[in-house]
Amino acid sequence: MSGLEVVGQVLESLPLVISSLEHYADCITRTKRYWRYKSELRPLILQITTERAIFINTIEQLFHGIIRIEHMTEFLANSGGTQRLKGAYAVYFANVSGMANSLARIRVKLALDPDGKPQFSDPNLFEQEYKRLKFSLSQSDYTEQLSELKNHNQALTRLTKQSLEMGSSRNERKHRYCPGFDALQKHASSLYNALNADLCCTCGEHTAELRLESRGDSREIEANLEEKTSFRLVLMHGFIAANVSQFGAEVDVQFLTETGPLPLSTDLQNARSTASLDRRSLRSTKETSSAPDQTSSKLEHSRDFCLFDRQSQSKHTVHVVEPLEDQGAIQEWSSYTLTQILTRRAMLGQRFYQLDRFKIAVILASTVLQLSNTPWLDDDWCLDEIHFVHRHGTPLATVFQYPFLHHDFPCKAVSPSRTTRSPFRRVIRNQMLYTLGIVLIELLYGKPIEELQTAHDLDCQGTPGAVWCTAERLNDEEIALEAGQLYSDAVRRCIRCDFNQENTSLDDEDFQRAVFDGVVGPLEKTLMRFNGQD
């Protein structure tokens, strides 16, 4: 007998048992001698009726949208239950069989015929048949079977709920593309090395604002990722303070994989010789712009970025493939830190909506996966490193479309340093994800986490510190109410590094996938639901 045939057996037995009990209860009302059993049969009928309703709901939930319960008999032959229950199929129908066995024993105690019906129909024959058949009328006689029925039914309910939830998650993971973060990290490191070498000059320091993107919708496989990946930068002279205007150029940087001479523009042939490329080079092209001209002195000071004017001998180099036009190449920009935006100190005149916060949360979570293990992003990164840049002459409404990662390049190339965490802080399994969790909280509340602390949070002996205690309290008590359970889950996983993975290094592909599914995915769903798209 197949598993679903057992379901049909249970669905058939439950109403027969209930009908038989109701028949006996009706007979008792006509026989004063057995009235004491009336008060016991009614609760018994109610309990079995309740278990029947729960069982029907469970089965309908399992096959939701496929079959109505009254058509179950015709459906048993080809149901697809194995696909829905996956590995839980065997244990699921073991519980159904347990219910069937309990009902079979109840039918025996009720002395029903092979068809599951009472062996008499005339109520006047009740006393005679009771003595002959000796069927049980006391509720206590069915205690064991009722307990088994209830336990099996509860197990089925839990298994159904879990299987459906996991099935949805499996389908999402099956169809959801995970970007090749290893390749993205490699490209980001190459870009940094090229800039660090090519911006090293005698004219002073430089600043780069790297545009951050989610890249979660990309469908290119890693084999084509090198040709498809591009980074957008705003390059400026000097170390630029936030909320201060400066002149700079916006460029797109794309990776080239071909070897051989680089095809320079004819306008540049006399200015520099053709460079032979290593296996990995960079391509820089300017976006066209209609911004007004700047004065000749400003252009003379700002347009000739070192990476465009010198031939670097480093392995990673930025080459000009298409000439930058003098007109509109240099624009005036303003930069604002995320801290200034959240605390309303930017004086930008543009409101930072909740929708913007959720968008930025998705991008920052993806950024951690893209830029971990690169010189761009330290483990202890913070809100002040995240900037929003505005090109003068463009609408302010677009300023929050993309965040940028701010990085200063000194006039002398330096090797990025990594700080070693103290032994006390090593209880945090992944510092970069922990920092992301804190940033997600600060982004949600619009305050540094220190301003969210209570006196209880400061009593943090034996923990990583007051920040940890504050994050744990907020996530346990408030964040789900503020932003939804999915956002809260993403924060919790970052703070606790709760991904059910032994290896918690972001250069491990399995861990990258777990973080992508456990953090980026829930944040994307939060954004979609906020937009009414889910």
From TrEMBL:
Residues 266-298 are annotated as: Disordered. It comes from Setomelanomma holmii. Residues 277-286 have a biased composition (Basic and acidic residues). Residues 266-276, 287-297 have a biased composition (Polar residues). Residues 184-528 form the DUF7580 domain. This is DUF7580 domain-containing protein. InterPro entries: DUF7580.
